[in-house]
From TrEMBL:
It holds the Pfam family SAF. The gene is neuB. Residues 283-335 form the AFP-like domain. Its EC number is 2.5.1.56. This is N-acetylneuraminate synthase NeuB. GO terms for biological process: carbohydrate biosynthetic process. Keywords: Transferase. One of its GO terms (molecular function) is N-acetylneuraminate synthase activity. CDD domains: SAF_NeuB_like.
């Protein structure tokens, strides 16, 4: 499921619904229209994941324009479990896959109970041993984001996830800054993850624009995750670093174009260009009128289009031979 011929594109709605299920429905519609494979949300109980003493991240203060506790900010973005049942059904009716990242034990149990296809672990949980142990008991495919992580962090998490049942696991290279500066992306780290862990890899992107996810696919990403929003001007921590509907649609189209362009890696004339070979290549022709019996030389031969005659690669095989007939200027030489 996690390793297929085309990249799995996850449209990350996250909490950009601002706690309003009607906006969540609209986000699903946008993901469907863009051609994404999955639409993904975030499932959590604020009281179970955030202390009332936790402060907001710098980017959260900047993006929301508010300075409140992290608990207060996140609580306003929470949706009840029953909302996700409705959203999953809505997504299925729209023929798009449904995913959500669980942030606590109750959310893990809930998402497993509604039979989501894939469990997506957010970067912040990669060092949460009890959380990882609970997920390791599931038999569903797992996607693990690796933002803020060292190689040892990832190895330790993989050991836990693989400790119980055999399952598919994919790793997403990620930078957990919103937006991520281009000089901090380090796309080549995705290649290192693939070589180190021998699992499908992808990229969870928080940069502005669509260039980096497209480049990731060209480098071999099996999965792309990208935040999107209905309106970048909405109040909330992630809207400003998200794509709008048109950008999401363009990203999906560009990724699919790049996948076609990657090809099979075998260098040979393609079916679309074969017809142009004779037009673009050249042949050995008469530079002047050549009399029968005259010796072919650099003075009476030239190389010109079209390429239907003797290839210029046989130039030295032609030089010095006697002409068997009269050739007019520009006529292709025959031996």
């Amino acid at each position: 499921m996690l390793n297929r011929n085309s990249a799995i594109i996850i449209a990350e709605a996250g909490d950009n619904h601002n706690g309003d299920i009607e906006l969540a429905y609209k986000l699903i519609d946008v993901a469907v229209d863009a051609g994404a494979d999955y639409v993904k949300f975030q499932t959590f109980r604020t009281e179970d994941i955030i202390s009332k003493h936790a402060t907001m991240a710098e980017y959260q203060i900047k993006n929301t324009g508010k300075k409140e506790s992290q608990f207060e900010m996140i609580k306003k973005l929470e949706l009840p479990f029953e909302s996700f049942i409705k959203l999953k059904k809505y997504a299925e009716n729209k023929n798009i896959g449904f995913m959500s990242s669980p942030f606590d034990f109750k959310s893990i149990d809930f998402l497993a109970s509604i039979e989501v296809d894939i469990i997506k672990i957010p970067s912040g949980e990669i060092t949460n041993l009890p959380y990882l142990e609970k997920i390791s008991l599931l038999t569903k495919p797992i996607i693990l984001s690796t933002g803020m992580s060292s190689l040892d962090d990832i190895k330790n998490a993989m050991d836990v996830l693989n400790s119980n049942s055999s399952k598919e696991i994919a790793l997403l290279h990620c930078n957990t800054e919103y937006p991520t500066p281009y000089d901090d992306v380090n796309l080549n780290a995705m290649i290192m993850l693939k070589n180190t862990f021998n699992v499908p890899v992808g990229y969870s992107d928080h940069t502005l624009g669509i260039e980096i996810p497209i480049a990731a696919v060209a480098l071999g990403a099996s999965i792309i995750e990208k935040h999107f929003t209905l309106d970048k001007k909405m109040v909330g921590p992630d809207h400003k670093a998200s794509l709008n509907s048109m950008e999401l649609k363009k990203m999906v189209k560009c990724i699919r174009n790049i996948e076609q362009a990657m090809g099979d890696g075998i260098k040979c004339p393609s079916k679309s260009e074969i017809k142009n070979i004779n037009i673009a290549r050249k042949s050995i022709v008469a530079a002047t009128d050549i009399q029968k019996g005259e010796i072919f030389s650099k003075d009476n031969l030239a190389i010109k289009r079209p390429g239907q005659g003797i290839s210029p690669m046989k130039w030295y095989e032609v030089l010095g031979k006697n002409s068997k007939k009269f050739f007019k200027k520009d006529e292709m030489i025959e031996l």
